[in-house]
Amino acid sequence: MRRPLQSPALISAFFDSLRPEQRDTAQAMQQAILDAAPHLRQEVKWGNLCFVNDRDNVMAIVLHKANAHLQVFNGVLLMGEFPELEGAGRGMRHIKTRYRIPVNGQLVKELTQACLRAWGR
After folding, report:
1. pLDDT over 90 at 65, yes or no
2. Range of the domain at 84
3. Does the residue 1 lie in any domain?
4. What is the pLDDT of residue 88?
5. 40-110-71-3 Cα dihedral, nearest 10 degrees
6. pLDDT band at 69 (very low <50, low <70, confident <90, very high)
7. 60-80 average pLDDT score
8. Average pLDDT of the chain?
9. Least-confidence region, from 2-6, 10-14, 33-37
């Protein structure tokens, strides 16, 4: 079943609904992800900004009160390569970034590329 594409206005509305410190962190994460993989489709799912490759959820930016999580849906496959990943469970892992602290764009780019390579295995 085909899904309708989400308009850029919906993505913009997502950012407009955030507090300034959340917006800055989320936009920095978004830019790093899209720099690494411009083909990923952005969708607002579950109130979060998700990045989708074909039909697979790849990553999501999840905003909390004190920090932002960059969730990696297949993060369990990347634990050896990225010790910064946190979490438990079957597959998802995340990295935390506190607001008002610069996002490690290089880490986000490398994580995005590794995540896509892992999906290809």
Report:
1. yes
2. 8-120
3. no
4. 86
5. 10
6. very high
7. 94
8. 91
9. 2-6
Q: Is residue 13 part of a domain?
A: yes
pLDDT of residue 110: 96
| Nearest Cα to Cα of residue 43 among 31, 58, 23 | 58
Cβ atoms of 120 and 95 closer than 8 Å: no
Radius of gyration of the chain (CA): 14
- The verdict on residue 69 lying in a domain is yes
Amino acid sitting at position 31: Q
Exposure b/e, 79-94, CB count within 10 A at least 16 = b:
eeebeebebeeeebbb
Please tell me the total count of domains within the chain.
Answer: 1
The predicted model gives 11-20 an average pLDDT of 93
How many whole angstroms separate alpha carbon 67 and alpha carbon 64?
Answer: 5
What is the distance between the alpha carbons of residues 9 and 15, in angstroms, rounded to a whole number? Answer: 10
Q: Residue 111 in contact with residue 78, Cβ under 8 Å? A: yes
Residue 67: Cβ-neighbour burial (10 angstroms; 0-12, 13-18, 19+): middle
Q: How far apart are CA 96 and CA 82, in angstroms?
A: 13
